[in-house]
Structure prediction request, 273 residues.
Amino acid sequence: MVSQTRSNERREPLENNMKDEIIILDKGLYDANPIVCGHQICEPSYWYQSVRGYYLFHYILSGKGTFENQGRMYRLGEGDLFIIRPGESTKYQADAEDPWHYVWVGFSSVQDLSRAVEQDVLHVPELRYVFEDLIRARELNENCEYYISAKVLEILCQIDRRHPGEQNAPVYVKKAASYIRANYMKEITVAELSAMLNLERSYFSAIFKKEMGVSPQTFLIDCRLNKAAELLALYHYKVEEAAYACGYTDPASFSKMFKKKFGVSPRKYTSTK
Prediction:
C-alpha cells in the first residue's frame, strides 16, 4: 500500500515533461559510476539506435514499444526493464498508438555484472519506485551522483534476488571466506556458517574444501595464526595478547598450534623478526 501511494503521488508531475535529462559529473565511483540518467515521454514511433561503452537500463513506466538487441526482438510494456550491455548494437522504438514513457540510467562498473545483466529483458513491476526515485535525483544537485549510484546498486540487488537458487558454489565459498577473514577473532563454527548461508553442513564443507583446498575449520585456524604472527612480528604484541586478539582463550593451546604451523614457538618467532 505504501509503494502504491508513492507511485500515485509522483505520476502526475512525471507527465508534464516530454524529456528530462540529468547532467552527471563523472566521479569515478567504483561499483556503479553513473554516466547518464533521465526520463522521456516519447512521441509515437520515436526510435533510437546506438552502441554504447557502458551499461544502460530502461524501465517502462507506461505505454508500449519494441526493443531489438543483437537480432532479438522484444515487445515491451509497463513494468518491463530492458538492459543494454557495453558494445551491444540495439534499437528501441515507441509504439505508434501508445508510446512509452521510460526512465533510463547508464553506468560503468569494475565489478563482474555478467550474472546480474545476463537477460535482455525483465518484468519487474516491483522496481517502479526505484526508477521514479531516479527522476527526483536532480533535486540533489551536486550530490546526485552518489544517490544515483545507490539506486543502481539497489536495482542490481533486486534483480539478483529474483534468482537466489542460481547462486553457484564458488559464490557461497567466497562469502564464507570473506566472513571468516572479517570475523576470525570470534567464535565461529562450521554449523553456524552453513546455517547463515542456508546450506546443509556436509555440503558446505565439501564445496569449501573443493574451492579452497582446505576445510572451513583449517581455513579459520590459518587466518587466526597468520594474523597472530603479524601482531607478534609487526606490532610487538605479547604472546597472550596475540592469542586473545585472534580468538584463543587458552594461550598454551595457541602456542601449541602456532608452533605446529610455523615450526617455532610464538616467543621464538617474535625474537627472530
Summary: Confidence is low (pLDDT under 50) at residues 1-17. The longest helix spans residues 216-234. The two ends are 64 Å apart (CA to CA).
